[in-house]
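Interim report, section 4.2 (structural modelling).
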Amino acid sequence: MGIETDNKEIISSIRENAKLLLSENQVDVIIGYSEGTVPLSSTPIIIRKEEDVDKLIWNNLCYINLARYLAPLMPQLCDSEGNSLKIGIVAKGCVGRAVNLLAVEKQIDLDNIKMIGFNCNGIVNRSKIDLEIGEKEILDVSISGDDIIVKGHNWEKKFPYDQYINELCKVCQIKSPSATDANCIGECQELESIHDEFSDIAEFESKSADEKWAYIKDALQVCTLCYSCRQACPMCYCNLCFVDQNMPTWFGKTTQFTDIFTFHLIRAQHLAGRCVACGACSSVCPVGIDLNIITRKLEKIAKERFDYTSGLNAETIPPMMDFKMEDEEEFMLEED
Amino acid sequence: MTETVLEEKKIDEKWEPKIIAFLCNWCSYAGADLAGVSRIQYPPNIRIVRVPCSGRVNPYFIIKSLVDGWDGVVVSGCHPGDCHYISGNLVARRRFAILKELLEFFGIEPGRVNFMWASAAEGERFAVLIRKVTKIVKELGPNTKFQKEWC
Amino acid sequence: MEKVGAVMVVGAGIGGSQTSLDLGDSGYRVYLIESTTSIGGVMAQLDKTFPTNDCAMCIVSPKLVETGRHQNIDLSINCEILDVSGEAGNFTVKVKKKSLYINPDICTGCGVCGRNCPVEAIDIFNEGIARYAATFVKYPQAVPLVYAINKECCIGCGVCAGVCKAKAVEYEREDEEVDINVGSIVLAPGFDEFIPQQANKYGYGKYKNVVTSIEFERILSASGPYAGRVLRPSDGDIPEKVAFLQCIGSRDYTGEGQPYCSSVCCMYTAKEAVIAHEHQHEVKPTIFSMDIRAYGKDFDKYIIRAQEEYGIRYIRSRISSITEVSETKDLKLRYETEDGKVIEEDYNMVVLGVGLNPPDDAKYLAEKFGIELNEFGFAKTDVFNPVQTSRPGIFACGAFSQPKDIPETVTQASAAAGCVHQILYEKRGTLITEKTLPPEIFVAGQPPRIGVFVCHCGINIGGYVDVPEVTRYASTLPNVVMADRNLYTCSADTQGIIKEKIEEYHLNRVIVASCTPRTHEPLFQETIREAGLNRYLFQMANIRDQCSWVHMKQPEEATQKAKDLVRMAVNKARRLAPIDRIKLEVTQKSMVIGGGISGMVAALNFASQEIETHLVEKETELGGFAKHIYHTLEGGDVQAYLKDLIEQVKSNKFVHVYTNAEIESLDGYIGNFKTSVIHGPKKERAEFDHGAVIVATGAKEYKPKEFLYGQYKNVVLQSELEELLNTDSVIKNKKSVVMIQCVGSRNDEHPYCSKMCCTEAIKNALLVKKLYPSTEVTILFRDIRTYGFKEKYYRKAREEGIIFLRYDEDNPPEIITEDSSLNVKVKTAKAGDLSIPTDLLVLSAGIVASHEENEELAKMLKVPLNDDNFYLEAHVKLRPVDFATEGIFVAGLAHCPKTIEDSISQANAAVSRACTILSKDEIEVEGKTAVIDMSRCIGCGMCVENCAYNAIELIEDRHFGLVASINQALCKGCGACSGNCRCSAIDILGFTSEQIYSMITARL
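Predicted structure of the assembly:
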């Protein structure tokens, strides 16, 4: 029972499907998760042989969105000519969304991709745990029943999973990839649309401009502009990110708040209707900034304004690629 | 104490915002010209940048304007259906809708960035809306949220 | 006589302008003669246009500016035709250029004279509602922007001459007579509206709150007398109940008006009602009409929206009388409903939907040009060439030959140009002058040396902005090496000064701080080009229209703003770079897809100009839709015409006909297409290059599923009836023929009017009556849409005893069968429930477009279809034969249901549009396009989706992989691609990111 059992089942299904794909030569390589080198982590792994499937794991620390390695395609996933190998990818729901959207944006050819789908049971909010543990050294992390057990020198702390799950995972409705059997082995589903009230950000949205500004300023001002969020994002695959562009250099790169703020604002603009809500950006943030609230806002804009949820299939173009005569324009200035 | 407050207030009343306006060549810029030809008076706070189409206006232009100290931004294009380039304004409208929502979400005063449509025949409307924007931005006061804080 | 490569176009409304542009672009010298003082005609007076509610000024003004400054178009205003001699190929026209009393070469259009004129005269443009001075322009955006003095009001006080700093006022200026030698003449004088003075039952001229529709149009206009507010003239109140009366002076047999239908009133009335309600929600319009004639493309949808979304009430009745309620100035309307009740209602305002008359000077023009007029006083034209007048070499287009709307006028305008080609094609390029320009000075890598010219514009700028101070300030800005000020920077002598300064100071960037670039940029660009600078090394600061004129009471602020604008311009100018206009070679051949009437007419027109044409037809036989039509309503012999066309096409050495053909592939772009066709019984492959494509793929007759069609042999389609009537006498013994209209039209499946079915029904009904007078003919209709002169035949049909009964869409007729006899049960509006026995039921089946076929071709051509699967043109008003993708044109039923006449017009129009490309060895395309930085592009394809012109495609680059690629021949430089690009991989020349950045950062 509980999370522990779920994870075991997920692991065995991933391994079984991975083995099948490799044995039938359906794929050349598989990219998945393996145990991390330090506690409270996991690390991506690429396997090519059947006997290595046991290195594949799943736990609630596998926050990396593996689709990140597809665009641009990492060299390990290419043949000597630089062409894509046939790739199997361990895919939770949000990896599936990213794979679909990358296909829409012509970054990958779905013919080369086989997702190994499963029903994701969520990711732990690592910074929340870090914050409670503080400076103490962590020696081991394990999952027992529904609890996360963190151990150190002469101490042990229990974190009930449902209280420490990532906020995004709590509201997530796309636990397994939305894909057809042609692109996915294991758990998948064909979702046409989802229903979401976005009640989790209603409170924030009801704040006054100054309150919001105060909150955002407080949250973002510790940002060091290390760009980890961008690097972890499966949809941030530009050759040259806008902050690195010159001629003209639109925005500064100092840690002046204006530069921090414009970075996050423009990044949000670029991800509107494209964000797949995997939460990798928040999970990798070294200073623990919670960007999930922005993620949810982006999802809300896409859904409520354009009736669009990213990555439900590999055909529908995202809202910024499209337009309609009837689009809402309540924000336009009008005469009194 | 009271005196300084009063003095500050005086300065406030004198303060005039600087507003940058990106106008599409075919409708809004022509509308602004018509306001001139018809001698319709409006406040002298805007500085107009001509662009071929509202579709040309990248969010970078808008944010950069705020970062650079403009107190308000206006983007004006052809009414939906009138676009000289068929659908440039419709492409732009989605982009602006998103930017507008994000700015509001991040706590930037909604009146800082304004989008409007004005046709080549709407000199009066152009002037009315520019008056309105000027009033809004004036009430908001100087654009401080984007100011660099040198300490 | 030697042919002359010049054409005269008479009338510079939208029609005349279009003809001139087409011909000017194809290498003819064009003399555009206008009788009033500015061009634009009625369209420039309109507020919005149906069915898209496009702003008329927004869409027409760029076209007028283009006409005004086209190097092959000589525009003369305020002209009168005195005499015409000669013949097709070589005419001489004597024209009187009447004096404006202001020298048009010197007048800068600044308007100071008009503002200072003490005499108020009536302003024609605003239909007498607003007042203007004796010195006037017709409207603020007038082309050409020169003032004129109305001598009838002028009191000769001399104020204008005193205030004119340009010294353009010349009271003694005299009329001038000139002889113009041209090879062909196109008449486009438009129409004059019916003025209901005589028809006093409407109280027009007597009651203040009764206005005509064109006056109401000015009321609606943002640039009109009430700045777009809907107010009634008597007291300036907002009228709540507004009645729109249709057919004022149209369909009128009393002698007061005209017997024909004016074609456009139903739609413009609906539009005016919608816009009135949109401008002022209090306004609740009611429209009184007999039939709703919404026969054009997407018109019916507009009417439905007017009713459902805007709550506009339609009452089917013609008003018998109007009286004024003297206290309130409201108007009492008396009318009879369809079922015979008499109702009286009060309205706050009445708008008369006035019809279109021939132009007032039609008789004069006809006499001068030696052409015949028809029975209604319009230009008489040929049945199978609706732009050909009775005199060879002279063509008529637009409302001069029959009332018509804007797209029909524009189509005919191009069609007239298309017919001119047939006469004068060998003379293309003989009378146009190519300017010799010095080679461009190489400026790359040099530091900017900017010259700033600040304009006083008389007192227009100088009176409010401290011009010396702005000039001084400009000279302090970085890279500015000289700053000077001029009384009028646009005057001819200043152009000389600018050139001198460029040389003296080695300027490589020039800024003019004056009026608007929309009107004056081309002039200054030409000047600096003559001095050897690339045209794009020029920048304007608009310190008049957008500064001095709008801050007249704040000179200090205006001066500050002018300085800011100059600084922003300097910042941009520092980043300006030369832009080369790209030249593309043109394959001077064409391809026409579809071998119906439209396709064949187009192919033959090309062939007559010796342009090699590939005609591709998917069927075994040429002929298309017209194969089943024997006569037109007016009596034209369609079969003979068709036979002749087919023979000509087959025997013409410039036409290659492919039947049984399928297009295998079609690649390329404007001027350079490559097509592969599989054709013939043996499925042979043909490959050819061509510079343009005309899509004339036609449409089909609807095959009804309703009304027992196909089950009873006594149920036939109109086309089948026509065949029976023309080939045998099967229907000889029929007692009662019943026709049902709108079968497969104007319903949920096909929500549009098929335009020709009413005409077809009346044509066949008249023929039945003629052949078998004792046969009873009943036509069950929803609206009878015999627009234009076709109305005559509707009247004739009623006189012949053909019974017309109207039914509602909600209560369609039902067919009751008993053995082999048919009974039509119908609920009619006038006579209630009826049951009509019939021995021949005729269905007026609509016209449908094939989704599969059209979609396949549309994808290949990358052009769009509308919801009803007809091809969607670039602009429904002003570009009715063009696609947004350049080099591809549409004609005939592929575009939307239309008559043979319209198809022929559109085919010739498509040829004319194509000739603007095919008449040249190479075309120059605008240099201000998008450019890609491949190293930044990630090939996400967003720009491809956002581009309205199909100018971007993703290509596989050897080095950078999948990246976007711009086809500069197709790109218009709008920047929709660039505004969304996350990587900043796309930039727009002329409006680059760096240039805009530098303007933003010039805030200070």
